[in-house]
Amino acid sequence: MSEDALAWLRLARSRNVGPQTFPRLIERFGSAERALEALPSLAAKGGERAYQPCSERQGREEMARAEAAGAVMLRLFGEEYPAPLAEIADPPPFLWALGDVALAHRPAIAVIGARNASTLGRRMAGMLAEGLSAAGFVVVSGFARGIDAAAHAAALEGAGTVAAMAGGADVIYPEQNAALAARMREGGGLFLSEAPMGMQPLARHFPRRNRIVSGLSAATVLIEAAARSGSLITARMALEQGREVMAVPGSPLDPRAEGCNGLIRQGAALIRSAEDVLEALEGPRRLLSPARERFTPPALPEPEPEGDLAARLFELIGPSAVDLDALSRDLGAAPSALAAALLELELAGRVERLSGGMVARAAE
User: Fold this and answer.
1) Options 3.40.1190.10, 1.10.443.10, 1.20.120.140, 1.10.10.10; which CATH number does 3-69+302-361 get?
2) Which of 28, 74, 283, 306 has its CA 20 to 30 A from that of 343?
């Protein structure tokens, strides 16, 4: 891989550089190389004097593992990156892809649900995936057991399937899906992950994985989702991303159906078949994401500091989330200067950016 790709990886893996911070660094400095060079001085302005970016050794080691596994790097803003995912508020700076990369560029629908799915739930997942696949849509899911596995397996015989992984793209989890993984690798499947190759999934990785599932898809269909489940987290993320959320109804006596029935009551489309999904989307034209204007990072001058703006900004931010627009009004600072000060505090690990344009002090 190129030196530019190495710099991209190192910037993305550097401490306190998250999915929302990364594109702002690229926009501000024009390239990953220049942003990487600027990280220590930016963090120092925010109060962190001993900041060290991801080392070249670490970056090369990760790239070597990916190359050995046959993975391809899909970089944000690049032609190879899935356009729908690039449109969300916090897209991964890059993805490791194992399998048929072309699947990431086709219209997709997510089918997700309970791990402890019933026989009827698994059958429904298979029927939906087969119908959607026959209509030409890639089926996206999270490679969990139950509904996810049934949807992946059924879609393999048609348009194909994409698995968003919580761990590395080469890590088969759960182990009981090993046979399914082997079939996907033979053809018709694609594994995507923002995690390094070989990384075992942890509990905190799954919500991050869920935003990729919904972000790749024009719609997310839930089957057997309990009232408190990861599937409902994915549904919330889909709504935040401006995507459709649909649900298959279930028995009021089955706790696995409580989340789906609640979504339908709140206005989600009631799904009985693949035809219902297509009808709810008013036909496949809504599934075809318009070609995203590809971003060419400009080399922008660094904003001029307005006194110790970072210190004043930090004083106004507490442990509770606060709106950025409110901070801008209170400080009376230019948006470019406010963004620069916030970036410095983020890199120093003193504040964290939340969804919906909110920020809060980082937990100590």
Assistant:
1) 1.10.10.10
2) 74
Q: Are strands 244-247 and 269-270 parallel, antiparallel or unpaired?
A: parallel
Yes or no: is domain 97-287 CATH 3.40.50.450?
yes
Give the integer Cα–Cα distance in Å for 306 and 168: 43
Question: Quick one: which H or E segment has residue 359?
Answer: strand 358-361
Stated pTM of the model = 0.84
- Could you tell me the two tokens for 172? 């088969």
What's the CA gap between 94 and 78, in Å, rounded? 10
CA 5 to chain centre: 20
Q: Which of 215, 182, 200 lies closest to 191 in space, CA to CA?
A: 182
> Could you report the per-residue pLDDT of 180-205, keeping only the tens digit for each?
999 999 999 999 999 999 999 998 89
- Name the nearest CA neighbour of 14 among 339, 342, 347: 347
**Measured between alpha carbons, how far is residue 292 from residues 28, 75, 77, 125, 133 in Å?**
20, 14, 9, 31, 24
Give the closest residue to 231 by CA, choosing from 243, 218, 217, 214: 214
Query: For tokens 């499947």, what's the residue?
Result: 189
